[in-house]
Amino acid sequence: MSHPEGEWVRTWSVLQRVLHWGLVGGIVGAWCIGEERQSLHDAAGYVALAAVSVRVLLGIVGGGNARFASFVRAPSAVLRYAGELLRGREHRYLGHNPLGGWMVLALLACTLVACISGWLYTLDAFWGMAWLDLLHRGAAWAVLGLACIHVTAVVWMSWRHRENLAASMVTGRKRSSVARRERAMRP
């Protein structure tokens, strides 16, 4: 589908953006608050859990770029894309690229494990269980590591494709492929 030069295309819905930034807020809040103020830490975790839960539901029944089926690709496609990326010949995607699609799943899964294990730890039946504490901490560190990789990739791909991907997660729009190519060719 081609778009006139300069046209902006809606890429991320309002719900996707609210969930994205709500998840960021919940994760950053839980990390920054820490366990010194347990009730605030728990509240931030519940925000993250709610965002992940709705995002998973949206990924299953949503439409467009929100649906997992629109951006989660087979491992062979991900490996092919990674090879193209290493050669500097990767295609631009309006939604998530193949590596980004798997990053979404990894972030959602690790956040879900961190949130559920944190919630279970508040229950009398699981209070003080060392394995649950280790699971919660391990999942939280995995989320932090994946988030660092994610942010680095967003910055790098923004530079590679000459577009501000973080801004698109605020506005919900990206330039059409035609407009982006023409802008990239200008001196």
UniProtKB/TrEMBL annotation:
<protein>
    <submittedName>
        <fullName>Cytochrome b/b6 domain-containing protein</fullName>
    </submittedName>
</protein>
<keyword id="KW-0472">Membrane</keyword>
<dbReference type="InterPro" id="IPR016174">
    <property type="entry name" value="Di-haem_cyt_TM"/>
</dbReference>
<keyword id="KW-1133">Transmembrane helix</keyword>
<keyword id="KW-1003">Cell membrane</keyword>
<dbReference type="InterPro" id="IPR011577">
    <property type="entry name" value="Cyt_b561_bac/Ni-Hgenase"/>
</dbReference>
<dbReference type="InterPro" id="IPR051542">
    <property type="entry name" value="Hydrogenase_cytochrome"/>
</dbReference>
<feature type="transmembrane region" description="Helical">
    <location>
        <begin position="140"/>
        <end position="159"/>
    </location>
</feature>
<dbReference type="Pfam" id="PF01292">
    <property type="entry name" value="Ni_hydr_CYTB"/>
</dbReference>
<feature type="transmembrane region" description="Helical">
    <location>
        <begin position="99"/>
        <end position="120"/>
    </location>
</feature>
<keyword id="KW-0812">Transmembrane</keyword>
<feature type="transmembrane region" description="Helical">
    <location>
        <begin position="43"/>
        <end position="63"/>
    </location>
</feature>
<feature type="domain" description="Cytochrome b561 bacterial/Ni-hydrogenase">
    <location>
        <begin position="12"/>
        <end position="172"/>
    </location>
</feature>
